[in-house]
Amino acid sequence: MRWHRRRITKLNETLVTERLLLKPAGKFRSIHLQQKMMEDLEILREMTHGSQRTGWLNMVLKRKLPNGRSRFMHEIMVADSGDSIGYHEIRLFPYKSANLSVVILDRSWWGKTVPLEARKVIMAHFARHAGIERFYSVVRSRNFASIFNYKKLGFKHSGTMHRCAFDTVIKEPIDYLEFEMLKEDFPAYMDWGNS
User: Fold this and answer.
1) Can you give the pLDDT at residue 192?
2) First vs last Cα of the chain: how many Å apart?
3) In this structure, what CATH number is given to the domain that contains residue 100?
4) 145-178, pLDDT tens digit by residue?
5) For residue 62, what are the domain limits?
6) Which residues, including other chains, have CB under 8 Å from residue 96's CB and lie 6 or more apart?
């Protein structure tokens, strides 16, 4: 089913929250943001399970970059100053599902509910304009901040993937937790039926 392959103009609009601008990032900007992610070893390890940085050419060749149809990245910017503090990725899959991930690059914004604020707007936008009926994500089992954020948004723990990755720094296998939210559990602010 290719319902998510058509280009929907509304999905490439800048979104606004109380404190943030969520600006669509194209391929080149997404590479730049991901390169910034690799400069922070703690974030790099959380995202890749190791400490090895990837060059931009390797990223272009191997990473699935935003295409404006099924893969999107929003640069998270402070509305008042225009400072870039991170990015949010959303990927669309059949059947009407969307996978979410977020990276806050500016540590001064850690713990300030940026993922919650950004996700509420992005999820509502994609539910309305792309007809998403299921949001999901997988989280490292020890990433307590992300687990807390998903639960606060109303996601439910739907499974555990045991020993599905290996952390090359601590030389141990990693478990991941799966979280999802179905249309019938969408909060009122998502109002998925309206366009």
Assistant:
1) 47
2) 22
3) 3.40.630.30
4) 899 999 999 999 999 999 987 877 778 888 989 9
5) 9-137
6) 3, 4, 130, 131, 132, 133, 134
